[in-house]
Amino acid sequence: MIDFKNKGDMGTLIFLCFSALLLVITLIAFWLPKPRVVGLTEKTRKATTISLVAAKIAKARTNEIKAAVDQKIWVGTVADIGPSALAKVNSLSEKHKLKLTAFRPQRITPAGDLSQVPFVITVEGTFLSVLAFEKDFEISSSRLALNSVQITSGEDSTDRVIATIGLLAYLREVAKPPKTTKLEVKHG
């Protein structure tokens, strides 16, 4: 037995008290409730599933938007846009009985991987015809966009006006294949 009055047994007493305290702490820690790993895994799995579904939806929406934008972009060279734009403007001006007096291409502006190709047109006709022309341009499936519209009166006693309209075409230029040259090989 341990004699508490004997100073030589004091180290053993401290060791036993420390061991008893450690045993009590271990038992308390063993009996305390712990978070369930299964519950955490289930929450993580649900969060991952939700994230994957959200990513798929975002990717599908991005593809839809890209397809809609691609329908409005010209692909080719600058030389391809001018004649097509003029034909579109000419057909719409004839449809609305407007006189096309000017069609001027402007300076091309780079915009990232696209280029802005602006045109300025001038048409003359009645005010209502000019408005209908502009409306047709906005709702048509044309790859030309209205950029600006300025309307001035033509004659004092009539409803004829002169409209200067800015149009924009966005171009994604196709890389031209490099010119190949024939190499001559002389056998000697």
Task: Write the SSE topology.
Blueprint (H helix, E strand, L loop, with lengths): L9 H22 L5 H34 L2 E4 L1 H18 L3 E7 L3 E3 L2 E13 H13 L4 E10 L6 E14 L15
Parallel strand pairs: 1-6
Antiparallel strand pairs: 2-4, 3-4, 4-6, 5-6
Structure description:
This protein has helices spanning 10-31, 37-70, 78-95, 127-139, and strands spanning 73-76, 99-105, 109-111, 114-126, 144-153, 160-173. The chain has 188 residues and is α+β, with helices and mostly antiparallel strands. Strands 1, 2, 3, 4, 5 and 6 form a 6-stranded mixed beta sheet that branches. The longest helix has 34 residues, at 37-70.
Secondary-structure-derived class: alpha+beta
What percent of residues adopt helix (DSSP H or I)?
A: 40-55%
How much is the radius of gyration in Å?
40 Å
The averaged pLDDT comes out at 83
Strand content: 25-35%
For the largest beta-sheet, the strand count, sense and barrel status come to:
6 strands, mixed
Annotation, overall tally of beta strands: 6
Regions with little confidence, pLDDT below 50 for 5+ residues:
none
Order of helices and strands: HHEHEEEHEE
Shape: elongated
What's the tally of helices?
A: 4
C-alpha termini separation: 116 Å
What is this structure, in a nutshell?
Helix content is 46%, strand content 27%. It has 188 residues and is of the alpha+beta class.
